[in-house]
Amino acid sequence: MKASRLRFGMNLWPPFLFAGIRVVEISPDYRYARVRMRLRPWNRNFFGTHFGGSLFAMTDPFWVLLLFNQLKGEHVVWDRAGEIEFVAPGRGTVYAEFRLTDDHVAEVLDQTRDGEKALVWFETDVVGQDGAVIARVKKQVYARRKRDKQLAHA
């Protein structure tokens, strides 16, 4: 699927649409994504700052989507674990960026070469308009070569 089509669909996806989460960019090579969330009455908490669940949700699917597309459908890829550290109250518009490097992809390919699973941690900061860190998110991604792909490479 073209990255532009995925971005369009994700912006209509109810969990993002109703939380005010907007996918600003997914690069055509699936190496980069940028997400934005403006503070709105429907995504603020009791204290008037960004609801923590929305901060986590805005980072949720991207490492899996980027990695899956880099692995050309030859691997099963899904989220295994996640954690978030709230650093400062989120006010105004917040952003998250995801950059998948050659090293990330090589690590997964190396670990899954013989049919083993890879468990790789990725980190993303959610930042305010001024670049100040609002939250630090860690996601552990699981990947394993699909069985029919294992046989083809044996």
From TrEMBL:
One Pfam entry name: DUF4442
Keyword Transmembrane: yes
UniProt keyword list: Membrane, Transmembrane, Transmembrane helix
Keyword Transport: no
Transmembrane stretches, start-end: 46-68
Protein name: Acyl-coenzyme A thioesterase PaaI, contains HGG motif
Top-level taxonomy: Bacteria, Bacillati, Actinomycetota, Actinomycetes, Pseudonocardiales
SUPFAM superfamilies: Thioesterase/thiol ester dehydrase-isomerase
